[in-house]
Amino acid sequence: MLYVFRGFAGVANGGITSLSMMIVSDVVTLKDRGKYQGILGSCVGLGNMVGPFAAAAFVEHSTWRGLFWVISPLAAVCGVVCFFTLPVPKVTSKPDYRAVCKKIDYWGILAGSAAIILILIPVSGGGSYFAWDSAMVIAMLVVGGCCMLSFLFIEYRIALLPMMPLSLFTSAPICVMLLQNFFFGLVYYSQLYYLPLFFQNARGMSPILSAALVLPIPCAQMTASILSGQYISRLERYGEVIWSGFFLWTLGAGLTCMFDLNTSIAAIAIILVIQGIGVGFVFQPTLVALQAHCTKAQRAVVISNRNFLRSLGGAVGLAISAAVLQNSLKKALPPGFTSLALSSYSTPDFDTLGASPTQMHEILQAYAHASRTVFIMNVPFIGLCLLGCLLIKDRGLQRPDEVQEPVKSQDRSEDREAIEAQAEKDVGTEEAMQVDWWYKDEEVEWKTRGQQNFNSVGQSLGD
């Protein structure tokens, strides 16, 4: 039941996340979009600040079920607020829902979901819960790979309205930015999930204290998101924001590899602040950059695929991190305590283990070593995102389908005089060309009857 309803919650969360960004892109111009997307990103950071504290309080003083009883009413309140505040789109005709439903990419959704599930389960549990050479792992990987190939074929040939149009990947900047979203989603969720585990399992901190130590990331993310949005809206540039964001994020992720049992709290906070600033400079600015590189017709599908790939990266990152943590912990634990690796997410209870002080220190060192292995694994992925910036050019906040109109004179009489002068020059006499002109849709349009008059003059001369 938990998996099924968490799946429903994931579907709703994915739709809300994408729709909120689409609404912003519909009601706000691209020039001002960085500012409002920055505010939207700061709200996400604020939620990431409050959420861990609320969850830690429920874990310590109640049960994890109590947290779900709080989330559901809050979601209902948000739905009521959206019902009364969101503007109703003006449509000229009632949409044909039956025709729209026929265009939904059902086969692509089915094949893609099956591929993700069948690949992630053996990857996350391989080597710990089940052997890599077991029949189940091999079968799931083979079937998952076939489902992935089927998904690509469906998106390329069958789907009327594909959920992931492969044509998006023909543009190098869009392809690179979508892959960046996948990789930094992998790193972000891995860091956000496994840092508290390091604080609790290796450092022996309480859930409340571990939540407080993770606080520098969302706090810095919220501040940097607002500042980056203001910068993009005012200067109409995003390149240097994304570059500096990935640089700081790579630096912060690399510095987390230094965490051990003796790292000071101040050092941890400073390193996580650096990483949080990088996150704030990346999350929303990359979305603005994607919209600047695509046409208006591609906007919705780019936003949805960006969020899908970021969430997929998070799922893959958590699966890979779980496998890395469990296998590394199993090798690092002292003899006689390897069973702790079967439940690597639980804080070791030294009162029931009967371990000596030396063995307790070795167990804590093993947890620290396993967590550091996860942090090391994340560095190359975010480093690839930094290198990908070499293929992204800052094109300003101008979409490719927005063609710059020619500059027209403010005085229309001057335009007419210029046109008549050019006509007189081409024909050689004022009587040879007469100009008819008019204005339509705020654009100067003109046409001449010069050729007809020229022919009439020629006939009169011939006579």
Automatic annotation (TrEMBL):
Any one GO molecular-function label of the UniProt entry: transmembrane transporter activity
Keyword Membrane attributed: yes
Keywords of the record: Membrane, Transmembrane, Transmembrane helix
InterPro entries reported in the protein's UniProt record: MFS (IPR011701), MFS_dom (IPR020846), MFS_trans_sf (IPR036259)
Record flagged with keyword Transmembrane: yes
Major localization class: membrane
Domain of life, per lineage: Eukaryota
Start-end of Basic and acidic residues biased regions: 408-428
Membrane topology (UniProt): Multi-pass membrane protein
Subcellular location: Membrane
Every Major facilitator superfamily (MFS) profile domain range: 1-397
Entry protein name: Major facilitator superfamily (MFS) profile domain-containing protein
